[in-house]
């Protein structure tokens, strides 16, 4: 079809697309033939909404309409519907003059949505909508710009893939698609009467386990004539064991890979092929998990978790920079009013949500999104504030899951780690309040931040042990030294120089302190270690830990990996065989660590209007890559002799590097900041700065 | 089927059945082929819930299951589903010992609900449910006691009705069903290709208007063989104009009357046949409108309005005493959290909701219901309290509809009528708080009631005019004398004897004060006039106003009736021909007035544990009737010589009457209270008390 003069688009009630979609996808998880709904409240879109728009037309105009739902058109406040033409296309005449058109839409399956286009006017961001709750708000829309493409179907891309290998086994075949993939399976020219049984496996062992696999389907065939048949629900797998009932035959198996089309705007190559492979596989892992939302893992849970998403967003910022997924995920996680329990029922996961919005704003500079979610951000914060104890701190309520990490620890009372997350959340809320012009909120949240930070340090900082202790329960301090609060304090830049040193030596690098075993918290730990300058240690760890999975034949990175576990139990988790997710978003952590600490690129002001580049070779001969920003990529090359940085298309950067002698630069303002440290100001958009470091004696 | 040892029943999340059903029925209204969704937020049931029950079994037990939705069974906190048998009947083995069974159910069309029964245990009120929001609450259930009868279909009764008359007209027929009815229409042995067009009319004129009627349907026929065809949506009508496309034929028209089975527990007969007819037709009018909920009118709006329901409940209390409809209606009106706008968007309608719960409790004594809705009652009250102005009074916000009545009046600022409704609501909240043991709430609401009542009288009582003035706007008193605040103050017993006299003479019986023209507010006015002793006036009015509709051929009572309007415009309303509802619940008001003020029966303590009977002949030769109570009916007979009262099956009544001489009673403690007034204590359950009044010289 041709676009109309003005670009019309499908419109709906804000946040309802994400909330509706989230409910729909959250119940697709299956465990051995049974549904697995999430363990938190699933919110629903409004079913009855009213759109409005005032037209001021010099000529009467014919509006072409398509509505997702039943609808009625009203004009200028009258209670009597105005008739519309139903065939061949739905349309209504808008008379000349100033008229307010309202459209009531009801839909209890999909979101109520509409599309209208005329010669001069159509549905766009200037329309308003109400859920009949006393408030009119601007409509939301996305990329549904065609009248024939309503928002009921998510705009995925598809590729048909052939098996990499098909192996006969007793009573069936094993199909191997060569690497982890996601989608449906088709049997071409299937005939006979009965079922085709599919047992999916992220590992060969899982597929071979038949009904011991996490997911399996039966596809009914009932035709003497050969017909193509396709499974109805998407699954994550690399292998499928296929068994057919007697008399069933088919010509060929195909897989329809379903994915979100995304560009890999981030890039990385270096002199170590293993690290390159880790980066590539990380990108594939993340891509599989970025779809309608940023999921934890596509086999399991295929749910949206706020803590997992917090990591995933950071990784995305150094690879796809696909921010629509991020926004959908944050909206879905936040859900609807009233807030009755923490996000995902986990206290820390509510707090990670604030951190995610903060990271989102820092990396994108998208104030419009902050503005749109600010009221819900405030009510979520009020929920938290209402749950403070007399000391102004958060303790778990009986219904709260106080998580922090899968590790033995005291979870009762005031945990230092939770207060740090809370403090950072308050700090973010104060920032947002300021940005959206809520000066009262800014002052209040700011004051609460300061007071909580003071409480945390007064109670929990232990000079002797050189770190923040675990917490307090029923008035008694728990002086256990665990890494969590110290990781957070480091990440949030809440430590002074002396405290940083103490935390590095006495906590994070202290073998006597309980080790962190989950990749989830390991992400934050490695992040903190980089912030403390432990790059070499971190990237050695990346090579070993992620490399270990490669050695075991992984084609995507796992939810968890412990080299000490025997191979036959590597896929077990939560007490069940094959329950471990072998394609888990947080497994893609190396992308973030490499982008932020090896290529060394990070925004210092929202949206990369100011940014920093501080590349480090970390023992490699050369590194090269790109980091996406809202406005172009920042390209970095470094070897012992030179650094090349291409600035993004706007923004002002600072390149920080060391050089024993005086470096030679092709442009820009160079400042020696002391010792062998230099800063080069990157002010020319898209310009390639080149820095000659001399004779390779760079300390990096 | 046979019931199991214990009575199992379908269970679901509390209030969700009502909220789901309300959404479903609220969008059935049609206007000339277009949908008419209500102008308020429609709430939805939770789609994902989890039921739980701990069993303590000496023997293993087989539980037979039926679930409305997809589901998974889990036991004892494990994340691994327990398998269940799917055929021939769904069942699961519960092992002996103490085990907690949880059942996650997901359903996005109907409410998630389940039924389970075994030898010793099944789904009943001891199960709990959560919407995954951190709270476990006891499940709700109703009369769905059979495994094959899930709550998806409302348990209506049906009767097949034949037309009273079929008249040929140009190109079709007019079918008359003799009186207003409701349901679907069947065409037996229909054949041919095309449509049967039905134009419904509550009046003949409406049916004759074709597409000018409020509702019409087309039934598609596409069969050479004669097949029975039935319309898909229920409609309200007495007449139908039927036109068929060429070649369509059918053998017979039938109507399937759909109704809620209810017993007419209230009765009334008297020496005036016209009043008897008015009572009968009122009962029919109310019955048509009492279904899933108490509707305003079944043609229009077929919506649930809080103010309308407040009247309907009172009428129901003197006729069907069907309290399940009342409960469903109150739950549906209240909806879900958060409260964002007034009920039905109308400020007064929020306040009527509190009054309805109060009336419900007074007439039924059902504390369990009060307890179950108390948290939502509190949050609705908090919503109101948060909207008070500095003077502690309610003024309309821009999004509020300040209704009071369809009449010209100032609606801005502090209206005395609204404050009176608010004050009464606070008083009810204080009562409920006390009853459910919330002593803090009781004290708080009690104090607020007193303070507001004091404010109302200080500002708005005008001694000179002898009544409450209209209100205050921007600090300026509006001294207009309107009936509304004075009606409310009378009804709420907020007037002292002198004020009552003043209000009667100077306001309610003052022809210079703006007349009330709507049956809605007229109901409250007549109620107030009865409370002021104006029985004769009120029942003369009942004869004339309701009798006037009878004279115009009504078979049910109307939304509005003005004798002054010419016949050809009697069915117009809101600027549209035939928009008036001719079967409107509030049209049944005479039942209430007769029961409460002629038979004279009313509860004085919750649930008729204490009650009063004060019959009045109001100029008739004899009156006779029954008034339903939670525990049996109170029967009353009176003529000039005697009164007979049969006490209900529990409770203690006081019969109040006048007698010139000393009355003779067959039982009970008689007290002369002064003048010719007597009180007889009715303490014997179900006993018929007889009072001889002497020679017919009773003043009644």
UniProtKB/TrEMBL annotation, chains A, B:
<feature type="domain" description="Alpha-L-rhamnosidase C-terminal">
    <location>
        <begin position="600"/>
        <end position="636"/>
    </location>
</feature>
<dbReference type="Pfam" id="PF17390">
    <property type="entry name" value="Bac_rhamnosid_C"/>
</dbReference>
<dbReference type="GO" id="GO:0005975">
    <property type="term" value="P:carbohydrate metabolic process"/>
</dbReference>
<dbReference type="InterPro" id="IPR012341">
    <property type="entry name" value="6hp_glycosidase-like_sf"/>
</dbReference>
<feature type="domain" description="Alpha-rhamnosidase-like N-terminal">
    <location>
        <begin position="49"/>
        <end position="242"/>
    </location>
</feature>
<dbReference type="InterPro" id="IPR048932">
    <property type="entry name" value="Rhamnosid-like_N_bacteroidetes"/>
</dbReference>
<dbReference type="InterPro" id="IPR035398">
    <property type="entry name" value="Bac_rhamnosid_C"/>
</dbReference>
<dbReference type="Pfam" id="PF21209">
    <property type="entry name" value="Bac_rhamnosid-like_N"/>
</dbReference>
<dbReference type="InterPro" id="IPR035396">
    <property type="entry name" value="Bac_rhamnosid6H"/>
</dbReference>
<feature type="domain" description="Alpha-L-rhamnosidase six-hairpin glycosidase">
    <location>
        <begin position="264"/>
        <end position="597"/>
    </location>
</feature>
<protein>
    <submittedName>
        <fullName>Alpha-rhamnosidase</fullName>
    </submittedName>
</protein>
<dbReference type="Pfam" id="PF17389">
    <property type="entry name" value="Bac_rhamnosid6H"/>
</dbReference>
<dbReference type="InterPro" id="IPR008928">
    <property type="entry name" value="6-hairpin_glycosidase_sf"/>
</dbReference>
């Amino acid at each position: 079809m041709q676009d109309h003069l003005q670009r019309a688009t499908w419109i709906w009630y804000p946040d309802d697309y994400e909330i509706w979609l989230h409910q729909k996808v959250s119940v697709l998880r299956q465990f051995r033939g049974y549904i697995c709904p999430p363990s938190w409240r699933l919110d629903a879109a409004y079913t009855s909404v009213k759109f409005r728009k005032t037209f001021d037309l010099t000529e009467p105009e014919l509006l072409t309409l398509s509505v997702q739902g039943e609808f009625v058109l009203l004009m200028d406040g009258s209670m009597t519907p105005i008739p519309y033409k139903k065939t061949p296309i739905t349309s209504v005449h808008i008379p000349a003059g100033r008229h307010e058109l309202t459209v009531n839409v009801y839909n209890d399956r999909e979101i109520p949505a509409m599309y209208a286009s005329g010669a001069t006017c159509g549905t766009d961001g200037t329309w308003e909508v109400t859920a009949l709750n006393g408030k009119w708000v601007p409509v939301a829309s996305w990329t549904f710009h065609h009248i024939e493409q309503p928002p009921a179907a998510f705009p995925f891309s598809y590729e048909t893939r052939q098996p990499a290998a098909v192996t006969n086994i007793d009573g069936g075949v094993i199909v191997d698609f060569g690497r982890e993939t996601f989608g449906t399976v088709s049997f071409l020219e299937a005939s006979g009467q009965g079922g085709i049984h599919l047992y999916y496996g992220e590992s060969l062992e899982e597929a071979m386990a038949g009904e011991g696999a996490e997911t399996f389907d039966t596809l009914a065939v009932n035709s003497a004539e050969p017909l193509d048949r396709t499974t109805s629900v998407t699954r994550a797998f690399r292998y499928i064991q296929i068994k057919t009932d007697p008399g069933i035959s088919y010509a060929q198996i195909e897989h329809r890979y379903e994915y979100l089309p995304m560009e890999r705007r981030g890039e990385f190559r270096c002199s170590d092929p293993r690290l390159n492979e880790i980066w590539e596989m990380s990108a594939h892992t993340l891509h599989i998990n970025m779809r309608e939302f940023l999921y934890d893992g596509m086999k399991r849970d295929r749910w949206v978790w706020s803590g997992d998403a917090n990591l995933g967003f950071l990784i995305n910022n150094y690879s796809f920079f696909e921010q629509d997924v991020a926004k959908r995920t944050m909206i879905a996680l936040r859900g609807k009013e009233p807030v009755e329990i923490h996000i995902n029922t986990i206290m820390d996961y509510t707090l990670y949500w604030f951190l995610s919005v903060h990271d989102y704003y820092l990396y994108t500079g998208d104030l419009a999104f902050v503005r749109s979610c600010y009221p819900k951000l405030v009510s979520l914060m009020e929920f938290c504030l209402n749950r403070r104890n007399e000391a102004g701190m958060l303790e778990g309520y009986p219904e709260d899951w106080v998580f922090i990490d899968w590790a033995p620890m005291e979870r009762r009372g005031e945990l230092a780690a939770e207060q740090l997350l809370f403090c950072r959340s308050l700090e973010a809320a104060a920032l947002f309040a300021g940005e959206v012009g809520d000066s009262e909120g800014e002052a209040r949240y700011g004051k609460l931040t300061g007071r909580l930070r003071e409480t945390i340090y007064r109670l929990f900082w232990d000079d002797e042990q050189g770190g923040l202790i675990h917490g307090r329960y029923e008035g008694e301090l728990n002086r256990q030294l665990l890494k969590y609060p110290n990781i957070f304090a480091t990440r949030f830049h809440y430590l002074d120089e002396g405290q940083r040193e103490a935390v590095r030596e006495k906590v994070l690098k202290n073998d006597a302190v309980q080790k962190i075993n989950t990749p989830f918290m390991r992400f934050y730990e490695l992040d903190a270690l980089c912030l403390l300058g432990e790059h070499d240690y971190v990237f050695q760890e990346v090579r070993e830990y992620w490399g270990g999975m490669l050695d075991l034949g992984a084609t995507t990175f796992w939810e968890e990996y412990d080299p000490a576990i025997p191979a036959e139990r590597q896929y077990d988790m939560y007490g069940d065989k094959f329950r471990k997710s072998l394609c888990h978003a947080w497994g893609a952590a190396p992308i973030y660590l490499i982008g932020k600490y090896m290529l060394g690129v990070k925004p210092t002001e929202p949206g990369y209007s100011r940014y920093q580049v501080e590349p480090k070779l970390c023992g490699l001969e050369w590194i090269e890559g790109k980091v996406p920003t809202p406005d172009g990529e920042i390209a970095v090359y470094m070897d012992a002799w030179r650094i090349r940085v291409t600035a993004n298309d706007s923004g002002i950067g600072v390149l920080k590097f060391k050089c024993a002698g005086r470096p030679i630069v092709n442009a820009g303002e160079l400042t020696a900041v002391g010792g062998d440290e230099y800063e080069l100001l990157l002010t020319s958009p898209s310009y390639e700065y080149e820095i000659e470091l001399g004779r390779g004696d760079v300390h990096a």
